[in-house]
Each structure stands twice: as structure tokens, then as C-alpha cells.
Amino acid sequence: MLRQQRTWLVTGCAGFIGSHLIETLLKLNQKVIGLDNFATGHRKNLNLVRKAVGEKAWKQFHFVRGDIRKMNDCYKAFGQEMPKLGRSLKVNAKRSRHTAHSVDIVLHQAALGSVPRSINNPLSTHEVNVTGFVNMLIATRDAGVRRFVYASSSSVYGDSKELPKHEERIGNQLSPYAVSKYANELYAKVFGRCYGLETIGLRYFNVFGPRQDPNGPYAAVIPRWIAAIKKGDRVRINGDGKTSRDFCYVDNVVQANLLAALGKKREETCQIYNVACGNKTTLSTLNRVICIAIKKINPQVKIKNSFYQQFRRGDVRHSLASIEKARVLLGYEPTHPIKAGLEEAMDWYVK
Q1: pLDDT grade, residue 80 (50/70/90)?
Q2: Is 40 within the bounds of a domain?
Q3: How confident is the model at residue 309 (pLDDT cuts 50, 70, 90)?
Q4: Any catalytic annotation for residue 177?
Q5: Among 9, 3, 2, CA closest to 261
Q6: Is residue 349 included in any domain, yes or no?
Q7: Range of 141's domain?
Q8: Which of 131, 195, 228, 286 would bridge 233 by S-S if both were Cys, CB 3.0 to 4.6 A apart?
Q9: Which is the catalytic residue, given 150, 177, 182, 273?
Q10: Terminal Cα-to-Cα distance of the chain (whole angstroms)
Q11: Ramachandran angles phi, psi of 240, nearest 5°
Q12: What span, in angstroms and rounded, lies between the C-alpha atoms of 42 and 47?
């Protein structure tokens, strides 16, 4: 990547994962176009990236404020105008300095996350995750971009009891969010067959790391628990604490995206890959690991005993990934198991 500069379009660039992707790309002297509407992303994340990469690298970044639910905004991210109704969808002649053909790779991260949110409001989840996803596929196709890497989710496995989870075998989805991500995979495969688009789906397993939002009713478990401990509150564990997850540090996710984006073998494309560490951790164990990590930073902190509450609707009981396919075809090798990831991220979480 240092030898060859490309132009990347990252949707959801102000989000947790998206901001890490643009930071890594800019540090590797890449040009980046970012698309976000700040629905769940934050401008402060972009400010943190700017500080991390420096002003010289930051000049390689171009931000487009837009919503993937609006087709015109998707075209705008490629520097083109949406074709008028009745006309064939071709690359438009009018282009900004970020022309359609200048984008080499799309990393699609924009989505409305959270299983509980999707149960409470399935329509908004569908509009963003399905309609928005198809909008981006169409805009990518019409811009002449070949490689489209997108974020899927381990929630697709649903009620499958098989452990570890293998990409080719899934169960029944348990939430509207899971259905929306499975729909993404189906649409991506069809666009590959019909239009020759090189799509690669990455099923993320419980990603965590710096810039993960601890606030709001749909915050992920790790930042939410750390925030609770900081406030002196008791940690609330859903269920009996034996529910397990394959927690994946954000640096592993960045690695998987870059490998998927730059792979040259045809058999690597139009595929789905698990992105995880291949290890499961129960919620009770996770709580203990977090407490130990916080104590290392602040030995004086007083941690109250956690308590268990009812299971959460739509949650799967156990989640553990097989990462063999990603290892063989992409060369993926996670660098941060959960303890190493927590130790690296804990300063940020505490601050």
C-alpha cells in the first residue's frame, strides 16, 4: 500500500470502525473519501483521526456529508450526479474533482447497528441496512468500481447451535438486524453474478476498541460496563453470565478489510468471511477481565459486585467463529486476542 496510492470510499467514516479504517488508510498514504450523516457516527472521531495522522495526511481526506438512504447522496460520494429517471444508469459526465473512476475500492461500514434497536424499530433498520445497502451497490456499479467490501454480522448465524460457526452453515435469524445483514449478503452475491461486482462480506464478531460509544441505550457491552464501573455503578449482566461471545479487537477488523480489499485471486471474491479471534469468552469472564484491566490502570478504583438480569430478546446464546477460511484465502491472522485488545484500549475507555 505504501508503494501504490489508491482512492478509497469509506461509508460510515465517522463511526467506530469507519474512523479506524480511514486513520489506517491515511497513515499508509492513501486517498480517502468518507461518507457519513452523523446518525450514529461522531464528528469528534474525525477530529481524533486528524490529530492522529497529522495535517499532511489529512489533506488526502475528503468528507461528504450524506445519507445512504438517499440515492443521490450515494452518487455524490463518487463525485457524480444521479441519472434522471428513464435514462440508463451510466457513469454521469458531470463529475467533481473526486471523479467516479478515481475511486478504486469501497469499504461499506454505514449501518444501523444493535439487535434491540432493530426489534424496537425494524423499519429504520431495514431502510438503512437494506435499502441503503442496495443504493450503495448500485452507485458503486455505476461508478465503475470493481471491489466492494462490506460489513456483515455474526448475528446472521441466528439459532444455529454449531460451534465454531462456519460461513457456509447458518441458522434462522433472530432479529430484524440479523435479517438485514443476511439480506446484504444475498444482494451482494446477486450483484456479483449479474454485474461482475467483486463483493466481499465480513461477518464481524463483537468488535471493540477505542472510539466505541459508551452512551445510549444501544451501547455495546464492553464500553457500557467500563462506563458503569467508572461511575461506581454495578455491572448488569444479561442472563446467567454463561452466554459467550468471540470478542474481536478493532485492529483485527481493519486488517481483514485491507486484505479483502487488496486480494488479487478471483476465488477470494464474492465470498463471506468470519472476522474474529476464534476464541469464546463468557460474559462473566469478560466482566472479570475488564475489572482486572481497570485495576491495572487505577488500583484505587472500587468495583461493586455485578448482578444478573433477564436474557435479552433476539440474542444468540453462544457465538464462536471459525476463522480458517479467512486465514487460507485472505491471509488473515488476528494480532489482538481479547486480553491484549482490552489492555491496549483501556486507557481510552477510562479517559
Answers
A1: confident
A2: yes
A3: confident
A4: yes
A5: 9
A6: no
A7: 7-212+250-278+321-336
A8: 228
A9: 177
A10: 33
A11: -95, 5
A12: 9
